[in-house]
Design a protein that fits this description.
Strand content of chain B: 15-25%
Shape of chain B: globular
Helix content of chain B: 25-40%
Number of strands of chain A: 5
Largest interface: A-B, 56 and 56 residues
Order of helices and strands of chain A: EEHEEEHHHH
CATH topology of the largest domain in chain A: Ubiquitin-like (UB roll)
Largest sheet of chain A: 5 strands, mixed
CATH topology of the largest domain in chain B: Aldehyde Oxidoreductase, domain 4
Number of strands of chain B: 29
Strand order of the largest sheet of chain A: 2-1-5-3-4
Number of domains of chain A: 2
CATH class of the largest domain in chain B: Alpha Beta
CATH superfamily of the largest domain in chain A: Beta-grasp domain
Structural class of chain B: alpha+beta
Distance between the termini of chain A: 49 Å
Oligomer: heterodimer
Structural class of chain A: alpha+beta
CATH architecture of the largest domain in chain A: Roll
Radius of gyration of chain B: 27 Å
Chain lengths: 157, 776
């Protein structure tokens, strides 16, 4: 069942990953082969959004993405968001705005938020609500999460 | 973070979480992220029948799968039983299975998919027994008995039980029978609430390894490293000293991770294989075999005089226990203790039964039975208000407990901010003008609804150890697991403020049964109040030792010394006579007095029942807690075509004694609201007989961003608890308690049709509106 090693570009770094079968998901490769455990397995069926990663600039469920299909794509995980250790504006707003509780959904929400912020303009709360509707959070009630992303969209350089 | 002044990081500030950077960068390690050298992965073979005797196992096929290290069945486990109140549960099914999915065999293999494949190949031979899927079936004459050995099980309190009745509780104050004659009106009704899934986004899991001496180290997603230790050691008959329980970050707990889940299974696999073993449940398993909120059936009757004075209440509750006792006797007793609500009702009688069935175990879930009874009792207050033509707020204000009043059962209440909660929620929501406000969209009906409530924080044993390190910085160790609600930060702030150091100079130790003082658990809204008290007390011991050292150096009296901001000790009135904690601690470590360590332990010991005022039987906890209060107003808009209810605005006023970290208090109120809104409007674990038919996030609907109102106004009320740390009491649960009731009251106001069954789905609302239009 094993295929040849596949090449993946993750957070700007090339990886050669062996032992990937046709059915191996990107989430499994990230977590179990590359020790990138930021993306979480919450439901493994594409509902909770905790496994969200960015693929060519768009948020994608890594639990529903086959790793072998991602070879020519630019993948960003939560580990790739804080450049040189400096938090991104949205990460900083989550920290200072008390928008993080248990943190299990946070990696997926960080990715969805970064995807929303790519438009490079101030976002309304309604836009953020719509953009985050695929990320479940059971702790926060979402209010502080939406506020943090709106604020990040207004204050980033 | 740079060192900030104490006043910028201490009690009363919204200090960011100590672990927030770890969590937003993906570095935080949860149980599923952990790997140990040589680790095996485990999988469960769950029962395919709901009630049966186990006649035989065939593990040969599973064992033949390449990569399988071990297959264990009930025969390979010791005979110990665990359970918070009734010791009725083995680590794995032995002799008998009692619910679908109950673990009957476990496999450890070199990787997860091999373990799962092999687990599916275990063959079982069962002798089917009649299934009792509901409390009604289980209480019927001649019903099959779920636990034949119930009478002989060890119990931690005098449980009233027999047949399939796991526990029976009653509380009575006043004279209910004759009080009905004093009532001008009486409302009576039946209410029903379904099972709710906790649905932590993190599924449960555990990892165990043993050393060469056979001592176990166990990491798991949990709410109490100490309850994990106790449950594993009871069920596997291990001395507690042979097991060390630790915790990684926990991806939320709402009661689901308080008592055991898979910990005993991985420990036994590790003991048998000698290798580390990890087991993480998938989402379906997490739905089916961990635990959920109890389904309640409630019959409630409330009477009042014409002027609105409440006179009498009677409440009867039937709880589906599921197959094992778990926390259920506590939930029954607590729900009954809450059944009078925060009101003066002089005659009140409540009674409840907890019934074993062949369903998954039900257990603790944020609110602990209180949201269910409040759903009934707060709706009846609105029914009375409507019948008497009295405003809902006026009726409540007329009847609320006043400062100094005792709780139902006779327990003392030292702080009571309920009147302020009502006043502030009413003002913020502009309640009086509610009727004049039009819906935001046409074709909808808009109305407000209100509910008041109270909840405890307290229970059982707690401790703290505070150590001053050589350089004058501090390590705090409490054993309380931060499950995401932020207790590590709150406890750090309390320690920092007591010692007058910036919060970033206090490290908090991760809970460890080897090194932390006992902590019963992160449950019962208790950590801020109970553990906080120990943190303050232990910090004060350290402060005393610092002053003792300084008094010897300055040759002055201890009473003449004060702690100063930034971590210094000086002589009162002499600004330049002071020493840093570094200077003090260095002397203590190397010259005189010994390293500075403060500790404190205590157990909550205030009686809940006064036998002179009330008669209680079968109540599991004689000493329960101090009281937080709350009042919630919601605005709903109901689509007249579809019957769908949307909550548009929320005003939640909660009396928390003192907000140690206001941002985190808001987080609890907002998160509790939305979880309660899910319970009210969309969430239901649907059973077909004993089988859960919707064990997936696709079919079980929790609120998303689009379902959740952003207009949630958290109003913090601070009626200081005299013995609370800085006056604080708990906030973890109280915000959820009134949610289903307030939403139901708003729905009734909008539709003129009362919903007595949760969830309030569009179909039920639409049917209610249609019946109204037919009648009119």
């Amino acid at each position: 069942m094993s295929t040849d090693a596949i090449k993946l570009m993750i957070n700007g770094v090339g990886h050669s990953v062996a032992g990937v079968t046709a059915g191996t998901t990107l989430l499994t490769v990230l977590r179990e082969k590359l020790a990138l455990t930021g993306a979480k397995r919450g439901c493994n069926q594409g509902v909770c959004g905790a496994c969200t990663v960015m693929v060519d600039g768009a948020p994608m469920r890594s639990c529903l993405s086959l790793a072998a299909n991602c070879t020519d794509q630019d993948i960003t995980t939560v580990e790739g968001l804080a450049l040189d250790g400096a938090l991104s504006s949205v990460q900083q707003e989550f920290v200072s705005g008390n928008a993080v509780q248990c943190g299990f959904c946070s990696p997926g929400i960080m990715i969805s938020a970064h995807a929303l912020l790519r438009g490079n303009r101030a976002l309304t709360a309604e836009e953020v609500r719509a953009g985050l509707s695929g990320n479940l959070c059971r702790c926060s009630g979402y209010k502080k999460i939406v506020e943090a992303i709106v604020k990040a969209s207004e204050t980033r350089p | 973070m740079s060192s900030l002044d104490t006043t910028e990081t201490g009690v009363g500030t919204s200090l960011p979480r100590a672990d927030a950077r770890d969590k937003v960068t993906g570095r935080a390690q949860y149980i599923a992220d952990m790997v140990r050298p040589g680790m095996l992965y485990a999988a469960i073979h769950g029962s395919t029948v709901a009630h049966a005797r186990i006649k035989g196992y065939d593990c040969n096929e599973a064992l033949a799968v390449p990569g399988v290290a071990c297959v264990l069945t009930g025969k390979d486990f010791p005979d110990g039983r665990m359970g918070a109140f009734i010791k009725d549960e083995h680590a794995i099914a032995k002799d008998k299975v009692r619910y679908l999915g109950e673990p009957v065999a476990v496999v450890a293999a070199e990787d997860e998919s091999t373990a799962r494949r092999a687990a599916a190949l275990v063959r079982m031979e069962y002798e089917d027994l009649p299934v009792v899927a509901t409390p009604e079936e289980a209480m019927a004459d001649g019903a099959a008995v779920v636990h034949e050995g119930l009478t002989d099980y060890f119990k931690v309190f005098p449980v009233i039980c027999g047949g399939n009745i796991a526990s029976e509780t009653s509380i009575e104050e006043g004279d209910v029978e004759s009080a009905w004659d004093d009532c001008d009106i009486i409302v009576e009704g039946e209410f029903e609430t379904p099972a709710q899934a906790h649905l932590s986004i993190e599924p449960v899991g555990a990892l165990a390894e043993i050393d060469a001496e056979g001592r176990v180290t166990l990491w798991s997603a949990n709410q109490s490293v100490f309850r994990v230790q106790a449950n594993v050691c009871e069920s596997l008959q291990l001395p507690m000293s042979k097991l060390r329980s630790l915790t990684p970050k926990v991806g939320a707990g709402f009661g689901n991770k308080m008592e055991p889940h898979v910990q005993p299974l991985v420990v036994q696999l590790a003991l048998k294989t000698g290798r580390p073993v990890k087991l993480i449940l998938n989402r379906v398993e997490d739905f089916e075999i961990v635990r959920a909120r109890h389904p309640f059936k409630i019959r409630c009757k409330t009477g009042a005089r014409k002027d609105g004075t409440l006179v009498a209440r009677e409440l009867e509750a039937i709880l589906d226990c599921g197959a094992y006792g778990d926390d259920s006797p506590g939930v029954l007793g607590y729900s009954l203790l809450m059944s009078r609500g925060p009101y003066r009702i002089p005659n009140c009688r409540c009674h409840g039964k907890l019934v074993y069935t062949n369903r998954m175990r039900f257990g603790a879930f944020r609110g602990f039975g209180n949201p269910q009874v409040t759903f009934a009792t707060e709706q009846q207050l609105d029914e009375i208000a409507e019948l008497l033509g009295i405003d809902s707020f006026d009726l409540r204000e007329k009847n609320i407990m006043q400062p100094g009043d005792r709780w139902f059962g006779g327990g003392e209440v030292a702080s009571n901010g309920l009147a302020e909660c009502l006043g502030k929620a009413k003002a913020a929501s502009d309640w009086r003008a509610a009727g004049t406000r039009a819906p935001t969209t046409s074709g909808t009906r808009r109305a407000l609804g209100v509910a008041a409530c109270a909840h405890i924080s307290g229970l059982l044993g707690t401790g703290a150890i505070v150590r001053l390190l050589e350089d004058g910085s501090v390590v705090l160790n409490t054993g309380a697991v931060d499950i995401g609600q932020g207790s590590d930060t709150v406890l750090t702030q309390m320690c920092a403020s007591t010692l007058k150091v910036p919060a970033d100079r206090v490290a908090i130790a991760s809970p460890d049964t080897d090194g932390s003082p006992y902590n019963w658990g992160t449950t019962a809204s208790r950590v801020t109040y109970t553990t906080g008290r120990s943190v303050v007390a232990a910090s004060e011991v350290v402060a005393g030792q610092i002053k003792q050292q300084a008094s010897e150096i300055f040759e002055c009296a201890v009473e003449d010394l004060e702690l100063r901001d930034g971590g210094r000790v000086g002589i009162v009135g002499v600004p330049d006579r002071e020493l840093t904690y570094f200077e003090i601690s260095a002397r203590a470590h190397w010259a005189a007095g010994g390293p500075i360590v403060g500790s404190d332990t205590w157990v909550f010991d205030q009686p809940s029942v006064d036998p002179k005022r009330a008669v209680a039987t079968g109540l599991p906890f004689p000493q329960i807690g101090v009281y937080s209060f709350g009042c919630l107003v919601v605005a709903v808009e109901i689509d007249e075509t579809t019957g769908k209810t949307e909550v548009t605005d929320v005003w939640s006023a909660m009396d928390v004694g003192k907000a140690i970290n206001p941002g985190s208090v808001e987080g609890q109120i907002e998160g509790g609201f939305v979880q309660g809104m899910g319970f009210a409007l969309t969430e239901e674990m649907v059973f077909d007989g004993p089988r859960l038919v919707n064990p997936s996030m696709l079919d079980y609907k929790v609120p998303t961003t689009l379902d959740s109102p952003l207009e949630i106004e958290s109003i913090i009320v601070e009626a200081a608890e005299p013995d609370g740390p800085f006056g604080a009491k708990g906030v973890g649960e109280v915000g959820l308690v009134p949610v289903p009731a307030a939403i139901a009251n708003a729905v009734a106001a909008a539709t003129r049709c009362r919903q007595r069954r949760l969830p309030i789905i569009p179909e039920r609302v639409l049917n209610g509106m249609l019946e109204q239009s037919v009648e009119n």
